[in-house]
Structure formats: structure tokens, C-alpha cells
Amino acid sequence: MPASEAVRGRQRRQREEELLVWPDLVFIEFICAVVFTVLMLFLSVMVNAVLLDRANPAVTPNPSKAPWYFLNLQELLLHMHPALAGVIVPDGGLIALGAIPYFDRDHEGQGEWLSTPRAWPNLVVGAVVGAFGTLLLIFFDASRHVDLYEWMVNGPGGSRRSRTARRTDVHSLAGGV
């Protein structure tokens, strides 16, 4: 079977123009790994780790925080049910990350930022809504959103419980702190 025109027209590269993965690239990566390992070993011997006293199960450090890579999950536990914050939200995030390559496989218009007529107004509105929403989330933390909801439902002066009663309930839930 004769080769197509595209295959026949391609010139074969010479060995000097090629860089093979084995042994060229693998050898360089191996040397880098050995140098990195030796440097980490040297650094761990020369620099003492910043450690606290021995662990005491009777004393919990305040605040007790997770390592930085689990800190976002710990913060979610403050605001959500543990099953939702520990299982459903992280799984949803991982599924969304895994689905990214399957969105919009079209390469048309790639690299053109803000080229449509509505792009700049959309950017401005999105930035304003995002900034305002972030400020609302910050200011309405610590159960202030409950006060707003009760004000909207019961009217300005028609709250069923007083503000001090709600604060007492929150403090009793927090252990009286």
C-alpha cells in the first residue's frame, strides 16, 4: 500500500536532532533527584525543626488548627454540618476539578480576553457583586444573618427574642466562653 503524500513529504530527522527520553532525559532527572535528596538530608541535619514541647493530651493548644493543607476543611466545619463539610463539599470539588478538561473543547477565540461588546460591563458588574458579596459575608458572619432574617420576617420591632437572649444561647452553645 503506498504511503500518503503527507507521510512521504515529511523529512526524517537525524539522530543528532533528536533528544531521547531514555537515557538522556531520565539520566538528568535522576541526577536532579539525587542532588535534591542530598540537599534535603543536609538541610535536615544542619537546621533544627521548630517544635513545641512534648504532646500533652490534657492540654489543647489554643487555637488548635489543622495543618495548612487541611485548614480550609476545618474552616468549613465551623460553618456547615460535618457530613456536608467533610464529605460532600470536598467530593464535589474533586469532581468539578476532574470535569474541567471536558468543558469547552473548542479552541476558537482562545487567548482573546474581553473582546466581545458585553465583556467589560460583565467584568465590572462581576467585580462589584463579588466585592459586595464578600463584604456581606464578612459582616453577616457570627449569626448576624439570623438577625436580618428575623427583621425581614417579623418587622423592625417585632423580634420574638431579644438580642441578649440570642447571645446567651450562642454563649451557652460555645461552652460559656
What topology does this entry show?
Blueprint: H1 5-9, H2 21-46, H3 71-79, H4 82-99, H5 119-139, H6 144-154, H7 163-173
Q: How much helicity do the residues have?
A: 55-70%
- Which band does the percent of strand residues land in? under 5%
* Strands, total number: 0
Cα shape: flat
Number of helices: 7
The profile of the biggest β sheet is: none
- Written as H for each helix and E for each strand, in order along the chain, the element string is HHHHHHH
Question: Given the helix and strand composition, which structural class is it?
Answer: mainly alpha
Q: Report the end-to-end length measured between terminal Cα atoms.
A: 85 Å
The mean pLDDT is 78
Radius of gyration: 30 Å
> Which residues sit in consecutive blocks of at least 5 with pLDDT less than 50?
none
Explain how this protein is built.
With 177 residues, the protein is an all-alpha fold. The protein has seven helices and no strands. The protein has helices spanning 5-9, 21-46, 71-79, 82-99, 119-139, 144-154, 163-173. The mean pLDDT is 78.
Task: Jot down its keywords.
single chain, mainly alpha, 177 residues
Can you describe this structure in just a few lines?
The protein is 57% helix and 0% strand. The protein has 177 residues and is an all-alpha fold.
